[in-house]
Write a structure and sequence with these properties.
It is built from ten helices and two strands, in the order αααααααββααα. Strands 1-2 form a two-stranded antiparallel sheet. The protein is globular. The mean pLDDT is 86.
Length: 275
């Protein structure tokens, strides 16, 4: 395989990533309703894509999968009017309501997967909004999450393409290699530690360790999504993002890393990158 073949998808991936990053940085920097609106849109799209995959059909406006955007409505309602626990209850209620509609319409295939997947995606979306508005370090915490996930993707992409070697888990994802896993973790280790050093000057090794764990789980999230798509015979979750597939294809690792950050932030009572 020539170098041009190895990086054939690089140009559309870069262009799409730059556009997404520009929008995301602006919305997250502004915070408040801007962040909430961005996360709500992303969560709604991921829920619909997830549901379309588990229905075993192509995504279109006539698909019952579009109903599964409804639980995302809990995010702006929670931000404006509710506490986080109340928001979690509202998410659960909307997931149950959408499940009932699905069952009444005869869409039983994959319904358990939809309940678990949409609940997971929406709950993590709520966690991201909570982290962004965490006192004092909210903005930097979300920046750390985004940088670690981006470093994981970049390190895995280039290490996998340049080094190659044994496959990580061919049955789930035939393109992923152990070299890619190592490259993603290594770059996340470095970027996470440098970010903490540059912003707060806190303990480099501890933050590097947490960044590496987040990178491992981010790649685990990617593999989990690959397993889901293979289970239901889908190549990509969607086609919205050139070079990446769907929003879920782009954000699967971000969901896992956000979950880790939320757990650590809640447990320690301070930003995940401060030790």
């Amino acid at each position: 395989m020539t170098a041009s073949d190895r990086f054939a998808d690089l140009r559309p991936r870069v262009i799409t990533s730059v556009v997404i990053a520009t929008i995301a940085v602006a919305a997250i920097w502004l915070g408040g309703l801007w962040t909430t609106a961005l996360v709500t849109l992303a969560v709604a799209l991921m829920c619909v894509e997830f549901s379309a995959v588990t229905e075993g059909r192509r995504l279109d406006i006539y698909s019952g999968a579009t109903l599964w955007a409804l639980p995302a409505a809990a995010l702006p309602i929670t931000f404006l009017f509710l506490t986080i626990p109340q928001g979690a209850v509202l998410i659960g209620f909307l997931v149950v309501l959408t499940t009932v509609v699905d069952l009444l319409a005869g869409r039983r295939k994959g319904v358990i997967a939809r309940i678990l997947g949409v609940g997971w995606i929406t709950g993590v979306g709520l966690s991201f909004i909570w982290i962004r508005h965490f006192p004092e370090w909210g903005l930097l915490s979300t920046a750390w999450i985004a940088l670690v996930v981006a470093a994981t993707d970049i390190g895995a992409y280039f290490a996998g393409r340049l080094i190659g070697g044994p496959k990580l888990w061919p049955a789930l994802s035939p393109k992923k290699t152990w070299a890619g896993l190592g490259g993603g973790v290594a770059l996340a280790f470095l970027v996470g530690g440098l970010f903490s050093w540059a912003t707060t000057g806190t303990y480099f090794l501890q933050v590097c360790t947490v960044s590496s764990i987040a990178a491992l789980l981010a790649q685990g999230g990617d593999l989990a999504e690959s397993a889901l798509k293979r289970r239901y015979g889908a190549k990509d979750a969607g086609t919205l993002l050139p070079g990446h597939g769907g929003v879920l294809d782009r954000c699967d690792g971000l969901l896992a890393a956000t979950f880790v950050a939320a757990l650590l932030t809640n447990w320690r009572g301070q930003a995940v990158f401060i030790w």
